[in-house]
């Protein structure tokens, strides 16, 4: 691999190589061209996405001069407890619990946080905790701490300490208000309640925190409920918030080891309410208090229909977002973001003759400009009943059978697409990817990405990763691409605005005119108010930035004897470890980089200086003609694809409904891990060949490893 280079410029050899490969089939943003790109220059400048000194949105942890550790823990309402399934632990399966759900009206008057002032590192036997309300008034909130590990009968829930926040200014009643002095609602404790008798607090002691918010009643401030539970979090004395898992004998809380934290301390704890289909929708474990409100407001927009303003969940009970009624474009694919990203996961699987309206069909003319009929993508639905039909379907599948050295036969399928409208000169079918961990990828310093680039294969391993360089449509600055199947978006903001205009015809400050979808050169000159305001575009960006990554499920949890083990936790640690070793040995890690570290310039403290395991280098690689389409994006030519992050891939079988509904690769052609690997060509040919030569038990071990991510 190339050595690190000075931030701000792509080395001349790298740039020349990028320009040379682009000339083979690259072109302008959104299209493919046969026109050679501009001649190479000695070096090309790029700008960091976030400059040094970028201020924080919110501080989430700091130490005072005397050593006191202050942690700000954000939280939101939930309907039940973390270990509470749809049935008693010793009863037959009756479905999932309701811990990871979002109750009605979750986006207003219901988020809060706990400010923790930990005096133990400063030599004091005292921890203070303050309730901080983001909006409105809480009345009757209770607070449970220290799971009662001494009681062998504790299962779903049970704590040693149960208290509340009594406010002297409210006559000793548990009433806490937005913006009040924090001292008005606080508790103090000075010993460890997990032992009998209580013992002195020491650094490293785990403390389970389970606040239960209550809204002021008579009447309730809005049409939602008033009594909730919330996330059950683990605070480690002297350390801070930690993702947790359940250990014997009764799934008692313990910090997850660092090597399971795919998203660092922003990772999502193991789930014991049997809701693996909802793990992609959860906020980062280390989220701050004010940022929790930003998260839920952005989530509301992600679930809002720009046709009728309804929410995708509890549409009869959640209030209509009236500001967004009738804002869907004249043509569109879906009315809500969540419709394409199933449970924040991927598009619906390809099916013969079914309209591919949860995928993006990008288009271009022969020269790489916008297609005369469709613009930059096909919008398959129309508001007008008389508008032309632009359905895109998979009319058939080209099928081949590959026989592996051990005799196993693998059927590979490639979709053949049909257009009801004119067939564009160039196009690319893209399934929607999962949206977890995007903020962590955005927080990676450019130097960490560019250090892995090797356009001339200087180390002789056959891998020639290169970055995509993207011009920001608002500032004109050039940034390193990170998002999309060809790394064609440099920021989450750009990704959100691009999806709004292309998939829903919804305008935003970045793309303020419907003409932007058609590539109009003056589209940003519009002065008409946009459908999504600047504040709302920020909130959607904040939401996607703060979605956490589930921790790797490679540990056996401590279910009590006789209790059914949840399917997502029925794992074989030895097989997973073997698969991880093999994944490295056959050199999949040459592109699927296991470990990276985020920088210290992102505006969200939750994302700074996190050691993460995305299994991606975010670079473009030539994957061979088998995966090539006919369309390029920016400097990425048709055979080049960004290394897809693998974190979360093992949860897709729950997110999408079942394993048969999971589709892999950019156009969703692969139905299994083995199929996906066998489509790898170009720079990945040697790794694929090594995979093919493995005995089936070893291929299965790699599958078990991927299932754990």
In short:
Helices cover 15% and strands 18% of the residues. With 709 residues, it is an alpha+beta fold.
Describe the structure.
By secondary structure, the protein is an alpha+beta fold. Among the domains are: 61-257 and 268-287, no CATH class; 299-455 and 479-532, no CATH class. It contains 12 helices and 30 strands. It has a 5-stranded antiparallel sheet with strand order 3-4-6-7-12. Strands 10-9-13-15-16 form a 5-stranded antiparallel sheet, with no helix packed on it. A hairpin with a 6-residue loop joins strand 25 and strand 26 (478-480). Helix 2 packs across helix 7 and helix 6 crosses helix 7. The chain is globular and about 75 Å long. It starts with 8 loop residues before the first strand and ends with a helix. Residues 1-7 and 9-43 have low confidence and may be disordered.
Q: Mind sketching the topology for me?
A:
Elements: E1 9-10, H1 12-23, E2 44-45, E3 61-63, E4 69-75, E5 77-78, E6 112-118, E7 127-133, E8 137-139, E9 142-147, E10 159-164, E11 175-177, E12 186-189, E13 206-212, E14 229-230, E15 233-236, E16 240-242, E17 244-247, E18 252-255, H2 289-302, E19 331-332, H3 337-340, E20 359-364, E21 381-382, E22 392-403, E23 409-419, E24 426-431, H4 438-442, H5 446-450, E25 469-471, E26 478-480, H6 492-503, H7 534-545, H8 573-585, E27 596-597, E28 611-612, E29 620-622, E30 640-642, H9 652-655, H10 673-678, H11 685-693, H12 696-708
Helix pairs in contact: 2-7, 6-7, 8-12
Keywords: Heme, Iron, Metal-binding, Signal
GO molecular function: cytochrome-c peroxidase activity; electron transfer activity; heme binding; metal ion binding
Domain Cytochrome c: 574-709
